[in-house]
Amino acid sequence: MYEVLSGIVGSTAYGLAHAGSDVDRLGMFAVRTEELHGLRRPVESHVTTAPDRTWHEAAKWCRLALNCNPTASELAWLPDELYEVRTELGDELIGLRTGLLSSRAVRGSYLGYATQQFRKLQTRDRTDTRSRTQGAKHARHLVRLLEQGVRLHETGELRVRLTDPERVRELGERIADHPDLAVPLLADAEQRFDRPGVLPDTPDEPAVEDWLRRLRRAHLPAPAQPQERDPRGARNTGQRAGITG
Does domain 2-100+203-218 have CATH number 3.30.460? Predict the structure, then answer.
């Protein structure tokens, strides 16, 4: 496994971390190219919870990012100080990040995931203290996803670190207690997504495909060196033809 790009994501990256927050890490790796030629595909994701780390194989990460998956996409938009591994090919991918975007995918992903958080808020048990804590987390995700998604639609930039994390935290607490407060936020975001934005209709898949093929070539095994032969035609391996001992 070859590390291509990795960094700190989640609440630390958003500016929402507190003293007890976990540190989440996200990374991309490449398998040896020859492993792609076998009967079975190599494992494309590795997830652990202690520590909290998620690693995606390069092709899978590209597919997620081309669908504008909010969590995976963050890896190409982190503040510089949050990267822990940046290879040359990783830097090239960061340079291609705007080509991964498309208007339909951004709308579907960010608005879709925010709506999922809203449904979780509506169905949770409000009498359960632990459920209340989880509800506040869902609410913060909802507010963050709407802010990031609308900004991405309107400016073409994914700002991972929130402009006003305290406002997001406070609003999340209120929405956790009163989920209906999220209804106008969702409606406003939907209206803004309906207006023309700056993103193209489709992503630049050829550029991403070219990058991935160059990554595969970089991890091909070195070509085997031809073995020397003695003047009589036998391979120079310490044994002559016909001699076995």
Answer: yes
